[in-house]
Amino acid sequence: MKRQGRSVEEQFGDSSRIQLKIKHVSSWIKRRIIEEITGTIPSCLDVNGDRKQLLQTLFGTERPLDLVKCQEDSHSRLQTVLDSIQAEVLPGGATNFAIRVWSNFNNVSPSSLGLFIKIALPYARWSKLKKPCPVSRFDREFIAFKRLNDLCPPRKEKEPNEDSPTQCPGVTSLPLLCGLDEEANDGTCYIAIKFLPRQYGKYLDQFIHGVVDKQPAEALGYTLAKLHVQSLSQWDKRSLLDETLLQYIANGHYKRIEDDQRCYIENTEFESPEVQANFFAPIVPKIALKHSNLLRDRPEVMRAISRHWDNLQNPPLETATFTHMDTHVINVLVSRSESKYPYTVDDPEYNPSDEGLMKLIDMEFSNWGPAGADLGLFMASAFFYALVHSYDEEAIKRSDTIISSIRAIWHAYRTAYIRFARQEGRSDDAIFLALFRIAHEALGRSGLWILRFTSPSLYPHVCLSDFLYALPDGLGKQLASVKSTETEEDGLEILRMACNTFAMDSLVAGFGDDAYIEYQSQRIENLTLARCNEKMNWFVNHLVMKRSRLHESLQRARRRPASD
Questions:
Q1: pLDDT tier at 438 (50, 70, 90 boundaries)?
Q2: Per the confidence metrics, is the pTM higher than 0.85?
Q3: How far apart (Å, rounded) are the C-alpha atoms in residues 479 and 492?
Q4: Which residues contact 313 (CB under 8 A, 6 or more apart)?
Q5: Rounded to whole angstroms, what are the CA distances from 494 to 162, 260, 460, 468?
Q6: φ, ψ of residue 496 in degrees (nearest 5)
Q7: Nearest-5° angle of CA 400, CA 533, CA 359?
Q8: How far is CA 389 from each of CA 200, 393, 501, rounded to the nearest angstrom?
């Protein structure tokens, strides 16, 4: 079932504000162009020390005035260059939106050149109440890119194709520029990166449509393993920890789940006319009470959440490392090429950076944390969409590819992790203990994330927007049009409850009472790779079972339309 994405303005109703930001960004870029062409002192921070890349990226040359052949006056030629600058809004996330900037000169290909400019507002842009969101997250993104560039410098074109420790595939290039909105002076930050050519698409689209290529998942697992192993040996906690961002995460997730337990209903944009005109607003108080009771009936879930928060702040030495912290499928770009990469992660020739199988973007929440958190966020996306595609037999067949992506990322991750850790001289006992704990962390992170995003206060936004999790086009109203003959719940609530209960099960499997005792053990008898795989096998098998039960529930509900 295909989904037609809505524009940023349609999603958020902030057209005038976004159009104003487009003007500000265009002016900001034009000032940078003038500074470079005229050789004046730059007024914004230059991240990578090579501002010549700005002109090369926009115009395909370091001398854009030479592209203007019909005018002799240098001022007129400069104005022609500036007038060629175009901008368009791209879909954004919860806290940012993005603008693509390029030149429309005839001999400049718009599909291969241009800038991707991410705009960070000082508040969460989806929130009606303009909740503060620290722009220091952009400082984290600059630091992350700089450190990754130092750790994993780009491969030279004629360098032999070898699996070098200095290679970290799948991460976007270093930013060219960063700066502030000089006109609004409201704290808004910009970061400008080379625009990836149009051979890349969103991995998210594959999950929405229900047909997923597992090769990008393998490449992501390989990339994360390499990043986690090498970062642990190169950096320490003090150089990467950002307690402000961790506290922001705590307030946005852990505290909100406590609010859900107390049946607190957040006064957010869900009271907007758009939501009122749909099918959510009348049922939010009712499901909030049910959700609260469910949390109270499972106190082990709340204990698991508390342990997960402690783990996020103080991960054990075996798993503590530099983490992306935002590895949802929306932050993974995948190659549009129809040709398949001939190698798998088990082959010594495997190096996904050579083929550009995927690109991991958006590192603003990167931090010092547990390695399993990165795997868990990807798994959260996968399990949500595996359950979404349970509404009919054909969808279930397609969603098998979603479940295969979970197997693929874990297989690639553990294979690469063992390889790189052994290269650094770690013993197999230490490696298996790390992987064992990483699997626990992944289940805990996956469960907590979906528990938060399918809570009564956020679930309507998940179903109506396109920025993080989105239902296939038309499925929301289709599910809302049927009702259970047993509980009077509609299809949307049946789906939400299935996600909720699976999320709680995953949390308990990762950080429940018995699981946490196991997680904390320093010595585990007969710890093998097979034992490390048990948690992931449980996750996949439990997901298949939950999908089957959800399908049966939705089929029973279809027999009675809600209008009856």
A1: very high
A2: no
A3: 5
A4: 246
A5: 50, 18, 14, 20
A6: -60, -45
A7: 60
A8: 24, 9, 17
